[in-house]
Amino acid sequence: RKYEFVLIYYSSLLCDKILQQRFKKTTMVSPSARSFTSLALLIVPFLISCDAFAPQTTPSLRVATPSTSSRLASSKTDETSFVDTLTNGWELFQKSKSEGYDFKQSVTIAIAGEYDAADIQSKIKEEIESAPCVMFTWEASPACKKAIKYLDIAGASYKIVRLDDPWSEGNPIRAELGKMVGRSSVPCIFMGGKY
């Protein structure tokens, strides 16, 4: 389940590249076409996160009950609804695009959701200062595995900060790292406190 977001993220980047190439070849492009596609790419992670496609353990008909419908529409419970989550993600995406962030960073910010930026920045600073070499990684990332391999070959001592365990804590850190260094890709390596 934790790797679903990695797959979705890379799929969204691929779709964006395909759209960019297609739009370069056409002379008239609807200005809302890319926004619509961006919205569609943001919907997929939220559908998966609400277990819409999870296999059923017992064969049964799904009947709309107050508990299932409250997840889809706004409710008065403490639980955030699917529609609220989707709306919030879209608003964060649009806000970050208007602030000048590229598509990839905007998606990263939208996936992270709302968080206390100052608190996350202080956590990042603490991590960076905690060791001579600090690497922010994803466990399944081939680039991260390669970086670890080469640091091991060099005999370097380093500290790994995993951004995928748990995702709820790693996504805001990744969004702030992207703002700090200008890219949201991993690995993000700091040596002597410098990127």
Main sheet: strands, sense, barrel: 3 strands, mixed
Percentage of residues assigned to helices:
55-70%
Mean pLDDT: 76
Give the H and E element order.
HHHHHHEHEHE
Please, how many helices? 8
Rg, Å, rounded: 19 Å
Low-confidence stretches: 52-76
Distance between the termini: 30 Å
Q: So what's the overall shape?
A: globular
Q: Helix/strand/pairing class, anyone?
A: mainly alpha
Q: Write down how many β-strands occur, each being a DSSP E stretch of 2 or more residues.
A: 3
Q: List the strand order in the largest sheet.
A: 2-1-3
Q: What features would you describe in this structure?
A:
This protein has 195 residues and is mostly helical. Mean pLDDT is 76; it is low at 52-76. α4 packs antiparallel against α5 (103-112), α5 packs antiparallel against α8 and α6 packs across α8 (167-181). It has a three-stranded mixed β-sheet with strand order 2-1-3, covered by helices on one side. The chain is globular, with a radius of gyration of 19 Å. The protein is 59% helix and 7% strand.
Summarize the structure.
The protein has 195 residues and is mainly alpha-helical. Helices cover 59% and strands 7% of the residues.
